[in-house]
Amino acid sequence: MSSSAEAVHSTIVVPPSQPMVSVVGSGDVLLRSIESLFPDADILVRGNELTISGPSDDVRLVELLVGEMLAVLRTGQGLTPEAIERSVAMLRGASDVSPAEVLTANILTSRGKAVRPKTLNQKRYVDAIDQHTIVFGIGPAGTGKTYLAVAKAVQALQAKRINRIVLTRPAVEAGERLGFLPGTLSEKIDPYLRPLYDALHDMIDPDKIPRLMTSGTIEVAPLAYMRGRTLNDAFIILDEAQNTSPEQMKMFLTRLGFGSTMVVTGDVTQVDLPSGTQSGLHVVQNILGDVDDVTFCRLTSHDVVRHRLVGRIVDAYAAYDAEQAALVARSAPRRPGRR
Predict the structure, then answer these.
(1) What does the DSSP assignment read for 45-90?
(2) For the CA atoms of the chain, what is the radius of gyration?
(3) pLDDT, average across residues 205-228
(4) Does residue 96 sit in helix, strand or coil?
């Protein structure tokens, strides 16, 4: 039997200042989550002590996990089973960033609700926004690409590092059907910008938003409205960038002015462009991959922070797409070799 499989025992003493219920959760919900992630380990709770028995690797990881949990709890922040799962994933990944550092990294607090990264890749994403002028956040739905970018924009505005926020999306599906929709141009475009409004309402007092938009401090507009402009001292977010053409992407990126930050978000697996049209988000990775002060952050199904089933759906579709691509490759006629 290898050393990693040998049964060992460890006892962790929880400080008296930290109620055990905050560690194991109400109704032991956090303890059950830990037990489900380490099925070969036994965890016994007695008073203010946790005794862990099982394979040495599991015991070591549970010890690390409890230490991270206590570090988070000392900040006054609570824990959830989802936070436990993400912490274990980070510990198993042997990252140089601790789970507690990720889970307690506040971006801003609005109406008593804190906006924080919840995964390691999300933490790297928000750090990249602080460190680079242009950041691309690429990943599937539910990974917080847009939400975290809007949070960083509001944070920069509140700190007076910028004078305005510009949020934009390509209204691809409006296209030729736009004229058939009822209402003014603004009313026709509004549904395509609604996710950006929703994020803003989570982070700014809704009563203040109309005033900020009237003054031009916050602008939410279709991508076509960006042409011919230079945006100085602004935080500019292009959402759903997979639906830009290469020409639109170039047009947008060249709007960058002095003192500004740009964040471009999108999912290259959800392109809604007409058949045969290349995605500007796909092309730009080959063009700007080595350009200084431009960085690409990639999020995966492991960074999905919606219902846990969303991550499984993303993985299932990725597997299906890979299988279909392999079938197409196998059925393609082979070119005859030279004789």
Answers:
(1) EETTEEEEEEEHHHHHHHHHHHHHHHHHHHTT----HHHHHHHHHH
(2) 24
(3) 91
(4) coil
What would the pLDDT profile of 250-271 be if each residue is shown by its tens digit? Answer: 999 999 999 999 999 999 988 8
Other CB atoms closer than 10 Å to residue 111's CB: what's the count?
9
Average pLDDT, the chain: 87
128: left (phi over 0), alpha (psi -120 to 50) or beta: alpha
Token code pair at residue 228 = 């011919």
Asked if 312 contacts 140 with a C-beta cutoff of 8 angstroms, the reply is: no
- What pLDDT is attached to residue 182? 58
Q: Name the amino acid, one letter, at 33.
A: S
Residue 211 identity:
R
Token couple for 128: 């990249």
Tokens coding 200 = 């803003």
Per-residue pLDDT at 338 exceeds 60: no
Indicate the pairing of strand 164-169 with strand 218-222. Answer: parallel
12 Cβ neighbours under 8 A, 6+ residues apart? 49, 50, 51, 52, 63, 66
Helix, coil or strand: residue 20: helix
Average pLDDT rounded to a whole number, residues 67-73:
94
Which backbone phi and psi does 308 adopt, to 5 degrees?
A: -60, -25
Tokens representing 325 are 């691509």
Taking alpha carbons only, the member of 31, 11, 286, 299 closest to residue 142 is 299
d(CA 92, CA 10): 19
Output the pLDDT for position 317.
Answer: 81
CA distance 122 to 126: 6
Tokens 């990720």, located at residue: 102
